[in-house]
Hints:
single chain; Dna Ligase, domain 1; three-stranded mixed β-sheet; two-stranded antiparallel sheet
Amino acid sequence: xxxxxxxxxxxxxxxxxxxxxxxxxxxxxxxxxxxxxxxxxxxxxxxxxxxxxxxxxxxxxxxxxxxxxxxxxxxxxxxxxxxxxxxxxxxxxxxxxxxxxxxxxxxxxxxxxxxxxxxxxxxxxxxxxxxxxxxxxxxxxxxxxxxxxxxxxxxxxxxxxxxxx
Length: 165
Ligand SMILES: [Zn+2]
Ligand SMILES: [Zn+2]
């Protein structure tokens, strides 16, 4: 499901909020970005079109969008809180335990898990946000090399003849 600007407008209206030019601009920045943005990054991008928008406004607006479900706050370990526009009902991240790098997972891999869950536990409009953790390839390679170095040292020690007392 792709949320359109029209949809966002309608939703704001339904909930009794006016869609001010500033709100529109902040939402557009989030919807046009395909990455997670921190509050400061959002501010920077909004200020490119309107230098008079301040941090407090961006913060309040993003809070509002998060409350009504247009935007999700992403808290991943090792990262500051970031925000992104909600584009679909399932959204998954992989976070490396070593370097905290983050990648988005292809939700097609999990198929229609959110729909099946909706059916099974009888809930509606369920969103699914999985966080998978592990080691990225770079961190893994580095750990393998460290392992080899450590095991080498251990092997040297244990290869000495046992001391009998
Ligand atoms: Zn890593
Ligand atoms: Zn994300």
